[in-house]
Amino acid sequence: MTDTKTKILDLAESLTQTRGFNGFSYIDLANEIGIKTASIHYHFKLKDDLAAALVERLREQHALGFAAMEAANETPEGRLQAAIDYFKGYLAKEEFCMCGMMAAELQSVSPRVASLVKAYFRDFEAWLYKQFELAGRENADELAIGFLSTLEGSLLIARLTGDADVISKALKGYLKE
Amino acid sequence: MTDTKTKILDLAESLTQTRGFNGFSYIDLANEIGIKTASIHYHFKLKDDLAAALVERLREQHALGFAAMEAANETPEGRLQAAIDYFKGYLAKEEFCMCGMMAAELQSVSPRVASLVKAYFRDFEAWLYKQFELAGRENADELAIGFLSTLEGSLLIARLTGDADVISKALKGYLKE
DNA sequence: GTCTATAGGCAGATAGAC
DNA sequence: GTCTATCTGCCTATAGAC
């Protein structure tokens, strides 16, 4: 049995990915989980606290996920492909990247949350840089920025029609030299 | 003197690009323009009507813009660079692409608006395809999808820190064969 | 930790006067 | 076209009982 706090985070994350952080309310969470809004305020006093907790949790999950990808895939190319597959998992649920969503809504989130979103992308880019460097590719920094941008952008476009090939096609050039 | 309807559209477009379509209200528009919310309802009965008008107007402006880019730039490469510069103009105002924003918030807009957003991206991709084809590049479809995805994604990432080099670096590979 | 009850404000939207 | 006035509902958030 997952506890209430986790249920709230899971549902809020999914709703942020589909509708945006401004696209759902505590009532949406409460009704779906089967509790009252006051109970959600007990766990996250302000909605901004919920936003911060969401980004911090995802950042921690990614840190673990990066390590797991390195354990499961012997080559940098295999790890990059694993990252692509991870994003295709979002598409299958018609979800965007949660931090990409918050990056889009940047001016409507608090400075504290904006700062956490920036940290998320710094981590992600650093990990990508490491993979391109391990792969012996020149201009690893440009490749990391390009890969990250294309990953986010192609998920955004792919979700319009649900076509996963958009992601594959957009990122094709990064997987073979 | 620009008329009220145009002022509403201009401001709503800018607010959508910074905060998202769910991140502002008729009060925000009314206060800034110096009218009352009832007057905005006269021009756009429902907020959804405003969303539809915003996307339709941008699509028309792009159709004109594409033609203008072809007139002003002799080579396809020059036109692609003009498209990049256009997006860097958004960055300078800390704005995201309006249709990119609505694509992110996809599940919170009406089917009618979602359909218009899809049309916007179809047009954009078709124009990019044409440029890559004119440039004699192989796999023009993959290049068009990749360029569009990277353009959107790099603007999203660049806006986090305000660094225009992110856009240049991410798209570098598309401008030289 | 969850509830009932409620405050106080803001949202989208409408009716009818000017 | 723009206004005043208003409706209804939803939103975030809090106080206090269980």
Rg measurement of chain A, Å: 17 Å
Q: Which architecture name of chain A does CATH use?
A: Orthogonal Bundle
Distance between the termini of chain A: 47 Å
Oligomer: homodimer
Largest interface: A-B, 41 and 41 residues
pLDDT < 50 runs, ≥5 residues of chain A: none
CATH fold assignment of chain A: Tetracycline Repressor, domain 2
Q: Just give the CATH class of chain A.
A: Mainly Alpha
Percentage of residues in helical conformation of chain A: over 70%
Structural class of chain A: mainly alpha
Word description of this protein:
- Two copies of one chain form a homodimer.
- Chain A is built from nine helices and no strands.
- With 177 residues, chain A is mostly helical.
- Chain A has a single domain (47-174), classed as Tetracycline Repressor, domain 2 (Orthogonal Bundle), CATH 1.10.357.
- In chain A, helix 1 packs across helix 2 and helix 2 (26-33) crosses helix 3 (37-43).
- Chain A starts with a helix and ends in a 6-residue tail after the last helix.
- Chains A and B meet through helix 6, helix 7, helix 8 and helix 9 of A and helix 6, helix 7, helix 8 and helix 9 of B.
- Chain A binds a DNA duplex (18 and 18 nucleotides) through helix 3.
Helix-strand layout with pairing:
2 copies of one chain form a homodimer.
Chain A: H1 4-19, H2 26-33, H3 37-43, H4 47-72, H5 76-92, H6 98-104, H7 111-134, H8 140-161, H9 165-171
Chain A binds a DNA duplex (18 and 18 nucleotides) through helix 3.
Brief descriptors of the model:
mainly alpha; Tetracycline Repressor, domain 2; 177 residues; DNA-binding; homodimer; elongated
